[in-house]
Design a protein that fits this description.
The chain is mainly alpha-helical. It has two domains: 68 residues, Helix Hairpins (Orthogonal Bundle), CATH 1.10.287; 104 residues, minor pseudopilin epsh fold, CATH 3.55.40. Helix content is 49%, strand content 11%. The protein is globular. The chain is built from nine helices and three strands. The protein has a three-stranded antiparallel beta sheet, with helices on both faces. Bound molecules: manganese (II) ion. Manganese (II) ion binds next to helix 1.
């Protein structure tokens, strides 16, 4: 069964003014679709692998034949990462979006970083420094939240870590509105983080 692009759970313009509609449209319809098209092509003759969820697929890259492993890592990773990304965002005026974190993740952030401001500072500074294209992540390891980055479309799942949240710092995610100012994009992004969804992911990360 080939992977398919799920519709965005909100309008292209829903994340304005923090993420512009044109960026959302290109990012979802073109960039994400391309990752899906490419991973499907690579798996065309590997039905046993294509039957897995994309998260399961990239959680075990050793099960992928070497001749298609890099293509699967990049494009399966791209599909998984973006599928996560759309769902952990929402319109800034929606309930549970933006503002301070809520629920269990709020308590864990407080325990591990002191407060939300300190956490955001760590996340933004760490992710701003990711050289070239990649992602900033919040993962839960050994009972603690930790900020990490990955290059390209590498997923924490391939390291055995479930991403609680992640922000895309490929230039395609922010260049139209923020140009070279990645830190401004990182700072603005928290206004559209869907804490209800992040809490659901945190529950999974704890298992
Ligand atoms: Mn992207």
């Amino acid at each position: 069964m080939a992977y398919e692009l799920a519709p965005l759970p909100y309008d292209y313009a829903a994340l304005e003014p923090f993420i512009d509609a044109q960026t959302m449209q290109l990012h979802h319809d073109k960039h994400h679709q391309t990752y899906i098209t490419n991973v499907n092509a690579a798996l065309a003759n590997h039905q046993n692998l294509a039957a897995k969820s994309v998260d399961d697929l990239i959680s075990d890259l050793n099960a992928v034949p070497e001749d298609i492993r890099t293509v699967v890592r990049n494009n399966g990773g791209g599909h998984s990462n973006h599928s996560m990304f759309w769902t952990i965002m929402g319109p800034a005026n929606a309930s549970g979006v933006g503002g301070n974190p809520t629920g269990a993740i709020a308590d864990q952030i407080k325990a591990d970083f002191g407060d939300f401001e300190a956490f955001k500072k760590t996340f933004n500074e760490t992710t701003a420094k990711q050289f070239g294209s990649g992602w900033g992540w919040l993962v839960f390891q050994g009972g603690k939240l930790k900020v990490i980055t990955t290059a390209n479309q590498d997923s924490p799942l391939s390291q055995g870590l479930y991403p609680v949240l992640g922000n895309d710092v490929w230039e395609h995610a922010y260049y139209l509105k923020y140009q070279n100012k990645r830190p401004d994009y990182l700072a603005a992004w928290w206004n559209v983080v869907n804490w209800a969804e992040v809490n659901k992911r945190f529950e999974k990360a704890k298992k």
